């Protein structure tokens, strides 16, 4: 996420929309459905793979953008009663992310390799 200014970067107090989107509660039975809980989403975030393998930073960037641009608005619509929780959960899949990437033109790296394999 691009910082707004060097002063914000130095203070670490800028709101990180990507970290916030990644911390949304997706448990359909939780009271905090679609909210980020008590996580501090100011400043930078460190992401790690659970299996401790290398992290593909291009894939992470695309996943973060998908969370902010697609999933977060769907969670808001669900909290407003416009769509069901099951409709939101159906969007959280490798297939939906891949389709969105292809539509957005984010499915390939500069070297021609696909970011998400099938």
Walk me through the structure.
The protein is an all-alpha fold and 118 residues long. The two termini are 27 Å apart. The protein has one domain. Helices cover 44% and strands 0% of the residues. The mean pLDDT is 78.
Question: Can you tag this structure with a few keywords?
Answer:
44% helix, 118 residues, globular, mainly alpha, 0% strand
What is the structure about, briefly put?
This protein has one domain (6-104). It has 118 residues and is mainly alpha-helical. The chain contains 5 helices and no strands.
What share of the residues lie within helices?
40-55%
The largest sheet is: none
Specify the oligomeric state.
single chain
Backbone structural class: mainly alpha
Low-confidence stretches: none
- On the 0-100 scale, what is the average pLDDT? 78
Number of helices: 5
User: How many angstroms separate the termini?
Assistant: 27 Å
Q: Report the β-strand fraction as a percent range.
A: under 5%
How many domains, in number, for the residues?
1
List the helices and strands in order: HHHHH
Rg result: 16 Å
Number of strands: 0
Structural shape: globular
Which secondary structure elements does this structure contain, and how are they paired or packed?
Blueprint: H1 6-11, H2 17-22, H3 57-79, H4 85-90, H5 94-104
């Amino acid at each position: 996420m691009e910082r707004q200014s060097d002063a914000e970067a130095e203070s670490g107090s800028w709101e990180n929309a990507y970290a916030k989107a990644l911390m949304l509660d997706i448990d359909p039975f939780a009271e905090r459905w679609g909210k980020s809980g008590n996580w501090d989403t100011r400043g930078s975030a460190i992401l790690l793979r659970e299996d401790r393998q290398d992290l593909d930073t291009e894939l992470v960037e695309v996943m973060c953008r998908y969370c902010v641009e697609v999933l977060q608005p769907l969670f808001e619509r669900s909290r407003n009663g416009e769509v069901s929780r099951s409709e939101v959960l159906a969007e959280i899949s490798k297939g939906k992310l891949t389709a969105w990437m292809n539509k957005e033109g984010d499915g390939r790296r500069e070297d021609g390799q696909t970011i998400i394999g099938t």
